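G.,

No rush on this.
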Amino acid sequence: MALAATLVNHGEALTGDTSNSKAVYLGLDVGTQGTKVVAYCPEEARVIARVSRSYDVMPTSVPGRAEQDPNETWMPAIDKCFVELGNELSSMNDNDEGEAIDGRIKYKIKGVGVSGQQHGMVAVDSRLTPLRPAKLWCDVEAVEETKLLQTICGKENLDFLTPSFTAPKILWMKRNEPELYAQTKWFLLPHDYVVMRLGNLRQPITDAGDASGNGIFVSNKRENSNSIANAIDESLMDKLPTVLSPNQVAGILDDYYVRLLTPNAPPTSKAIPLSVGSGDNMCSALGVGCVSPGQAVLSLGTSGTIFAVSDTPVSDSPVLAPFCDATGRYLPLACTISCTGVLTQVLNEYTDWSSHEEASRHAASVGIGCHGITFLPYLGGERTPNWPHATGALLGLTASNLKYASDPAVVYRACLEGITFLLADALSHFPNKDTITTLLVVGGGAKNPLWQQMIADILNCELRYPLETESAALGAAFQAGAAATGAMVDDYVQKQNLERNPTVTVPKNHEEYQDAFQRYKHFATRLFDRS
């Protein structure tokens, strides 16, 4: 606690600037496909600049493996983003002659925050150098290790654990790479590693939000479990980073990165506090303003994600991940594998249309329930419910509707309905589901009007749409602002007057979907539920 207090005070002292420059907070979202950085100015309540760099997962022929070398992907991408962003901010601060406007700097970076992909594993040695490529959230090699941990730690209730989580990955490394495991000083999450590098920290840190996705952290106690850690290795507890509170300053941005961002700034103005950071879902919640109980977010990406803020932790749920959020509350979360990725496969393999917009125009002419045809969307198995053995299926065919099975508009709409039924079933497991009347919808799928109305109808919720697409990066910037000013994170977020999309989608046809929904649940459970 003494160290934490010192860091917070250090951060407050650093931002005690009496100049009339406008504060800017940077938010990084270090993801699987790339890194995005936004520069947020609270005085103007807007993102004034944004940059990004793409990269990919390492090629492999090993089933279930998904890895990235942090020093070949994340860190070089951050370097390039910082250089580009620094130049962009510098141009905003200069007049046409390259001089500071009115003798002052208009925008000044006052803090940096990091959002990172969850569930990864970065194993580093005593020099804090990665010993092997990072295993990512989508790496599912550790199937046996997941089952082994659930068997050993049954009393800890690890029903929610999947091979995506960090704990099985650590056990996998111990069993399959014992020499590298023996050299490991710290096991870090991706955002932990990035924060450590940005601040040149000698002792890694993390936050409760991202840590709650490692499979070892117990959310209601806000600490790592000795019994789960010991089931992997009796020394593992000493290899996990220190957990800081949501608004603490983790350290100071290293001079190397300061020079990338502010190449023309004098040395005395370069100290920039670095917040603790969090996982991408936790930061995304901050970025859309979801910080109070009863608020929930639906993310329509390659996977589908629903999370809701709660004052109480989730327990005894095989469907909901028992996460903490990035404010000090809890963030129960359901993640479905089958979402826009499945819809894209149907578009490409089952239709001749060139876009989802075109497909949706045709699908809009098909009636609710798709003439009794049900599409189970589990083309790659499913995580929620935990049915890795599941497959896709087109069901309910009869003599009277068989002709529609070859109609791409019907199949496309049936796929939309199937994905939405899957999301509705996931939402039904939330303990506070009756209080969730509004969903903040983000992701690429949120732009489809046909799907918007379908989701509102089936989930029986009002839908609203944040304007900022990079919600995780913006949330990281909000956390940086809170840490640098000593504010509570939820209070800071609620004070940001962000412009929102005025569009609201309200439920109109909830009852009309009920027969199709019940048909979907009947087929899905009969085929794949092995409980």
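When you get to it, here's the other one too:
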Amino acid sequence: MPDEDHPDGVVLIGSSEATIQAFSASTNALLYTLKDHTDIVCALTVGRYRTVVSGSWDKTAKVWLNQKCLMTLTGHTGAVLCILIVGGYLLTGSSDTSIRRWKAGNCEHTMSGHSDSIRDLCLLNESEFLSCSSDGTIRQWSISGESLRTYGQHGGSVYCLDVLPDGRGFISAGEDGRMCVWKDRRLLQTIAHGAPVRCLCVLPSGDVICGDSNKMICIYAFNPEFSTTETREKFFKELYKINNDKKSHLTIPSKESSKVSQGGKVVPLSEYFPKTSFTTFANVDKKGIFGKLRLFNLEVLDEHRLSRKDLQLLESSVSGRSPPPQEYFQALWKALRWPETENRLFPVLDLLRFSMLEEDISEELCSAENGESFVDCVCRVLSSELSTNRTLVLRILCNAFRHPCGRRLLVSHFDRVMAPVLRLQSEFEPSVQTMQATLLVNYVVLFRRHLLGVEGGITKCLRAAAELCQSIFEPEACFLLLVAIGTAVHGDDEYQKMACKLDIQNFLSMCRGCEVERVYKAAEMVSNWIE
């Protein structure tokens, strides 16, 4: 942000100390500090006339000019996580799942549609913008507030997005370690980055810079000219404005927070131990799922192909308005027999995932008559080599905890279900690691809070946790595994002694050395109980 006094630009940084710090882009010197927020400043943008807009965990957005706060925008019930200026309007996205449109300091409209925190906003064209959310979806909106369409391809929270230079598409990225390139309303390309992508920026050339949870900044060059050494050097000089004094660097003071974030919602750490509720996955893009289902149905062999009536039954029976007929389940079982090797099964699995949240459907699939077939199907797909399918199956199992019939089935088949889950090779699949840990958390909650008269459940969970400790390293998955262990041993001397005898000390040591705050704090708390 250049100004008259600093033609080379000013770098603004939001701080965990509830301040905004301004640094010289040419000398790295601290120029000034803006103070008016009462909690972490997590969003910043710059408008016309050098106005600055900030968003904070204190649930407000503030407008600044000439280092003074001109106005404070109140109304959100959660942290303001992202900001977008569109013409004469200001848009704010919040952990309260809403987007608000402001003009002259007044909230003119509140947009609802996402089911979890809004993580990023970007302008698509003069009349439309995009939002992404921890619910795993991206939504396209009109500036007036109408939800136009939903994109759903990520296997977890979508943290960031940016528009392509031609304005015809955009790139999204998030928790599942993938960057999805969208153009003309369809998925054009998927880039497997390998670690959760926290932020990205599309350059005018079309090249993409992203920052991930491994503290790496990576550049994906879509411009073939970027492959030359000369062009790369020029690019880096322009991008980073490299200082001739190699010793100079930018140091930003920080302050440890006593809070952690769960799906973008700020909660005290103590609320994780013990965890008392099941984690389920309710986000759904029905239009996208059934579009893929119809397309793939044309491509499968005749023996697997669904009839028009079958497709109509599958589409009409997920509304939850009335119990589905038996023909629905026959069509579903037929679709679940589609070959996995051709990567056509994922829309069927996604259909099953959100269908499991409907009690009538869950009762039928988990009944004494069909439960064995359901578990067989789950175990078969868990052995698949396709990461998307495995992630979806783990989410299906998590959703089965919603209703008593599913819980009974999962308790009676604990060993059979967990065996393939523990065998999964997920070194390069953060989303799979996260889902392995989430499933175990649900099992621990089940045995600690619901019990169902089953003995030895927590013992089995602790042994499973010890096995996962040998293969899980992604920070989010580590945190969830700590939640599972912490909930299992919380307030129980016997289980704490049992955990001491298991091979989890190296895992706890690794987590205590993690630089992600909620991971090392949770590890310290668990260590205090069992060491």
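The chain has 16 helices and 24 strands. The longest strand covers residues 118-125.

Enjoy the weekend,
O.
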